[in-house]
Amino acid sequence: MGLHYLNHLFDPKSIAVFGASDRQNSLGQILFRNLLAGGFSGKLYPINPNHVIVQNHQAYKSIAEIDEQIDLAVITAPALAVEEIIRQCGEAGVRSAIVLSAGFGENVAGEPGRILQQNLMACAKEYGVRILGPNCLGLMLPAKGLNATFSHEIASPGHMALVSQSGALCTAAIDWAQSEGLGFSAVISLGDTFDIGFGSVLDYLALDPNTRSILLYIEGIRDSRRFLSGLRVAARIKPVVVVKAGRFQQGLRAAILHTGAVVGSDVVFHAALRRAGVVRAYTIKQMLNAAEILSRRRYELKGHNLAIITNGGGPGVMASDRAAELDVPLGELDASDIEQLTPLLSPHWSKANPLDLQGDATVEHYRVALDHCLKADKFSGVLVMLTPQAMTDSTAVAQLVIEASQKSKKPVIVCWLGGKQLAGAHQLFRDHNLPHFDTPESCIQAYALLTSYQRNQQLLLQVPNPLTQHRKPDLDGARLVVNAALGNGRNWLNNVECRAVLRAFHLPLAPAIAASTPSDAVVAAETLGFPLALKINAQDIQHKSDVGGVRLNISNADSVRQNFNEMINTVRSHCPDADIQGVTLEPMYRRAHGRELMISIQRDPVFGPAIRFGAGGTMVDVIQDQFVSLPPLNKFIARQMINRTRVYKLLQEAQGMPAVNFEALEDALLRVSELACEMPEIHTVEINPLMADDEGALVIDARIQVQHPVENAKPYDHMAVHPYPGYLETQTVLSDGTALLIRPVRPEDANIEQDFIGRLSPQTIYFRFMQSLHELTPQMLTRFTQIDYDQEMALAAIVSHEDEEIEIGVARYLTNPDGETCEFAIVIADDWHHKGIATLLMTELINVARQRGLKQMEGEILTENRGMLSLMRKLGFSVRIKQDDFNLRMAVLQLN
Questions:
Q1: Which of 48, 78, 117, 396 would be a feasible disulfide site paired with 59, CB 3.0-4.6 Å?
Q2: Residues 26, 60: contact at Cβ < 8 Å?
Q3: Burial class (CB in 10 A: 0-12, 13-18, 19+), 127
């Protein structure tokens, strides 16, 4: 709510370089030279205990000799000296440091390196120094002329920010971007990310006015919740493009050795990126291309169908092939389109999409085709291609395309295939900021990234409750079952226990009866009716079919007794040490149109529980048809999961089979999501098969693995995406009888939030924001309504009028980087003052902060805001004058 805690890192006015040297080609010499050559306008202080002269600058022996406040320390000294340097920086009031030195962490230096790391971070925390690195390339801020790296060249100024765990990739990306005429607002090499990681940097870049798009190169993540929090904040405001290395096993091993970070499943990582609203690229060139097209403007895609216009058949075919590979649909021309276009185009044009205008295409032909495609609802975007032809004026067509794209909300992508002959057109595209690429394949890739971005942005806006609005699960009953198994030293539930847990969450199951003897089995069979399935009931056997533990289509009592004994003997021969408790009997699934599906929960080491959906049955591992999402799910996300699998086509009406009951299928996914959210004890759930048909869905078989939950964990700590905290909603009545709802702010509150700010008086706005403000900018509005419920909380006071919600107050806090304190702010609509609303909101906010384990709440209040100061004292806050600004008071409340 004030200056960002990384402001000293990204906007330093003075820099001290520890290890600055006059030794040729040493790290300290190169770094200090780069800072001088970059044109940094702030003050530079070389520090070297030998008191040498560095680049005509007399070095200081220590930071204690410098009279002025230092904003940023850059450290090139050996690893053994870094801890003491950080101590000296902390005592001198330095708040940020870049540590380029290597030699920390057990992956680099074994046990000594690990101890160095622990001591360094303990010292940094004690003195409040934030560290970028160690083992990093450093930081570039081209517009500020700051090159605090050992790279020989500084990037060109621009509006892309690059954040990378690899310094080598930073230098490669800078070089490639310069050849393409692209620049950067910042280049940040994170190194080992012991302290400042992706989450912190993303949190800063989200609100950096010089950054329009953000590029990430990732090998591994240390703090998934902090990473996703920063990623979601940034992606709500500006495009974020990610390259994730280590997609395959060989690359995973290299990534772990390089960064020491935890690396999980690439499929789950991809699901996390989708949920965060970002785009994934797979090469440096793709990453830069994606950032280029996404940062130009916010396109309004109302579908995904692409139109291709070309004057060469070959490029059109190449583009079509790539579109098929990337699932980019090409809209089809109908008879009406052809009838309109044919009189105005060459007689031999293709009369299909791609619209091949032939080699004699003129500017007018291009104008007609482009105008038609931009107006047609069936096309969501247009790719315009041109090859050098004698009859086609490439520059004039380029000018036409530029003008048409500026008037349209649809994306227009261009590909002028050629070099020297088309140089004028290429320059026009650059001058007018129009996305242009060298090959048809690159164009299709860019459009695919654009559609992916749109889909993921829709996912980002989904903030589901952990529980659906249907029947609440029996959490106490499910936990009793799980805790009993854990208390007995077991991590796998038996058949009966699995069914009990799933039933507690209202998943559809056929009736079943457990039997420990052949006679009990016969009684159970007569109770259930024939035909039946017998399944072994043993808590330490998970894959029953693999050991002969399943018998199907049992049709009479004699067969029940015989199969019971045979199955017990067969399973004992395979698993002599198994604790066999008997069998379970279930009616056979007899519906005619059932499809075998699978739903599972798997615990990823980085992102926690992930839900998988896809084709089921015994060949599930061979078919490998599954779509992964992170919980919590809602109907929108569940339906997307179903639609994105290959088996989706088989679930629709086809070949005389009716479509499955998709609502029942969605409900099953939502119930599994509830299980993943509400029970951190769950490690693995596999429902296979789940039979689905037109009547509904039915769990046929399942297995569940459990684990002891983390002690003293906060609700939903085991999840990477914090669900909407609906349990914080409270209803109350004001003294005048007005019904008041206090609830967490949601993304869809943007309109009522803007309306709320618009109704505030100038004085109230000044008291809240400490500046004049007529309305919230789009960035502020996004930041205020699309919040991360883990790191912050915003509670709105809502009244209803004619079935419309009206916001009349809001209180919020934001957790500070120390993870123990938070900063609050509150504002109440002028015509609702003196009704006790501020007290209600602050009381609820304080309770939430306490529940989250925060230790202190603090906030700055203008001295003239006497009403707020009085409220704070009433609520138990201590109020004191802010040392560096007598116009402000600091209100502080100890929460524990």
A1: 48
A2: no
A3: middle
pLDDT at 108 over 60: no
Q: In which residue are the tokens 């609303």 written?
A: 837
Question: What is the location of CATH 3.40.50.720 in the chain?
Answer: 1-153
Q: CA 155, CA 170: separation in Å to the nearest integer?
A: 10
Per DSSP, 594 falls in state -
- φ and ψ at residue 76, rounded to 5 degrees: -115, 5
Specify the amino acid at residue 710: V
| Contacts of residue 597, Cβ cutoff 8 Å, sequence gap at least 6 | 613, 614, 615, 616, 647, 665, 689, 690, 691, 692, 697
Tokens 């609802």 — which residue? 377
pLDDT of residue 872: 96
**Amino acid residing at 87:** R
Domain 155-296 has CATH 3.40.50.261: yes
In angstroms, rounded to a whole number, what is the distance separating the alpha carbons of residues 804 and 473?
31
In the predicted model, is pLDDT for residue 390 greater than 70? yes
Tally of residues, the chain:
896
CATH number of this structure's domain 726-894? 3.40.630.30
Higher pLDDT, 684 or 426: 684
Which of 819 and 149 is assigned the larger pLDDT?
Answer: 149
Q: Is the confidence at residue 218, as pLDDT, over 50?
A: yes
| pLDDT for the residue 432 | 86
Q: How many CB atoms lie within 10 A of CB 161?
A: 27
- Burial (CB count within 10 angstroms: exposed 0-12, middle 13-18, buried 19+), residue 560: buried
Residue 247: which of 227, 232, 268, 233 has the closest Cα? 268
Is-contact 627 459, C-beta < 8 A?
no
Q: Which residues contact 108 (CB under 8 A, 6 or more apart)?
A: 102, 135, 260
**DSSP secondary structure letter of residue 607:** T
- Measured CA to CA, the distance from residue 666 to residue 637 in angstroms comes to 9
Residue at token pair 């939950």: 709
Question: Which tokens belong to 586?
Answer: 């279930």
Exposed, middle or buried by CB within 10 Å (0-12, 13-18, 19+), for 67?
exposed
What is d(CA 406, CA 285) in angstroms, rounded to the nearest whole number? 26
Helix (H, G, I), strand (E, B) or coil at 883: coil
Least confident of 136-150, 243-257, 313-327, 527-541: 243-257
CA–CA gap between residue 892 and residue 822 (Å, rounded): 10
Buried b (16+ CB within 10 A) or exposed e, 796-812: bbbbeeeeeebbbbbbb
Alpha helices in 588-655 (DSSP H): 620-623, 635-643, 648-651
Report the interhelical angle of 394-407 vs 363-375 (nearest 10°): 20
Strand partners, 813: 793, 824
Pick among 3.30.70.100, 3.40.50.261, 3.30.1540.10, 3.50.50.60: CATH of 300-460:
3.40.50.261
DSSP string covering 536-561, please?
Answer: EEETT---GGGGT-EEEEE-SHHHHH
CATH of 1-153, one of 2.40.50.140, 3.40.50.300, 3.90.1010.10, 3.40.50.720: 3.40.50.720
Consecutive H or E run containing 686: strand 682-693
- Which of these, 241, 174, 205, 236, lies nearest to 34 by C-alpha position? 174
Q: What DSSP designation does 739 have?
A: E
Residue corresponding to tokens 């012991």: 194
Q: What are 267-282's pLDDT values in tens digits?
A: 999 999 999 999 999 8
Residues 706-731: tens digit of each pLDDT: 999 998 888 899 999 989 998 899 99
Beta-carbon count within 10 A of 16 CB: 28
List the single range of 290-299, 561-570, 720-729 with lowest mean pLDDT. Answer: 290-299
The whole-angstrom separation of Cα 709 and Cα 682 is 9
Q: Tens of pLDDT along 453-490? A: 988 988 888 888 888 777 899 999 999 999 999 999 99
